[in-house]
Amino acid sequence: MKRVKMVLAYDGTNYCGWQLQSNGITIEEVLNQRLTELLKEPVAVIGASRTDSGVHAEGNVAVFDTENRMPADKICFALNQRLPEDIRVLSSQEVPLDWHPRKQNCVKTYEYRILNRKIDMPTLRLYSHFCYFPLNEHHMRKAASYLVGEHDFKSFCTTRGQAEDTVRTIYRADVVKEHDMITITVKGSGFLYNMVRIIAGTLMKVGMGVYPPEHVKEILAARNRKAAGPTAPARGLTLINMEYETELKKKIIGKNKDWEYQLIQTEILQKGKAYLFINRCREDDFEGLLARVTHQAVRNGARQVYVCDKEDDKRIVPGKDYGYYRFSYGYDMLAMRKKISLSKGDTGEDMSEGQAFQGVWEKVSIWQTSSFCSIYNQVFYAVPNSATLTEKEAREYLVNSRWQLFLIKIRDKDVGFVILVDKEGELEIDSLGVLKEYRGRGLAREILERTEMAAVKMGKESLSLTVASINTAAISLYRKTGFENEGMISRWYVTKDERAET
Predict the structure, then answer these.
(1) 423: nearest Cα among 407, 393, 403
(2) Of 18, 195, 250, 347, which residue is least crowded by CB atoms under 10 Å?
(3) Active-site annotation, residues
(4) How do residues 321-344 score in pLDDT, each as one tens digit?
């Protein structure tokens, strides 16, 4: 058994869309029939984008499974000989059996073409919408710019009778006129039913002067289909391409007037963990945002998603269902501080010598970022709320004069590390750690003592750090060395992908 991915182009004029229907022939039906004939076995294709009746495509994607031994890259040539002239397979290749065209992160690009002249052109009638009323493409372009970003596009979709999350991200929305042809290009993470055609109909109203460009913002805010313009005819719409993500994004940021969040995905591949910071969110949108972004992280491979609601740490209700997910309390991040008596004077040793200590401190150079990241990530692999450190991030620390990175060595072997941040009036311990096999020797206490000496030399009044409430061993050490708890910085909740049956 193998799975074959196809890139497809078709003229949708003579078809009732992509998906199988009882009232007419569809692209999916034709492909199933011709592949079954070619491969001598029943075939059912799975399409990435189920385009509507009359909509065209230059880069739709579909997959199918087959036992046939024909090489995947040759199938497109053999199949095209059996297909009608208005459908073509542009390429075919084998993909993993679990590769699904609708379950991968991708960016879709659509174009909507408007022939804007006094008299229609017969040769263009099947691939563009004719509009004889003069359109102001500059106003249309400005209006389109308000669609860029993550928004609730409820005003720009046709209701299909089922509950559906209507939040989408548009990366590009542009309007270009060349001679008599106006092309609206929309690129996004996904689209709702009739979304691009309603965008086109709305922008045409702007071009006619019915709406000012700024009215698009009011249409978005209304979240009501009646607020937007008409649904433009299907023949002007073409699915241009689908660009699939080849590398997981380390950070996803969603921001508009109603919400702002960051989804950190750096630890998904290695640890199966994702962290969601909700900086602010309108109350009515909160549950949907939590469910939607958590699901995105899980779909990207996270087995655990940790969430911090910075606006209201009690808004997440443990045990309550948010879409497929149920959260429980995880831990608090605590701030701890130790006041320093400057009367001790300059009695500490230089940090680079370490003569009276077990470990020698070596300031990290640009050439040591790889070894520093390696030991950092080993130590913090299972520590709550610790992120995986990359070489790029380590190099960024090194060029910032406020940050100091040290490797702790015993007999020239890396055994631990510490990261210090110079702040006004205090020295912050961003992080410190010792390899498991060297713990129990007092090295962590030694790092704290030596850091305090450095703070005295620098004339600082205090040392500060943060620690997770469930890291009881670290909290015990900090208290024994004079640190006091100054309160909670943030509260974290966690879900472990215990999804309901669907």
Answers:
(1) 403
(2) 347
(3) 52
(4) 999 999 999 999 999 999 987 654
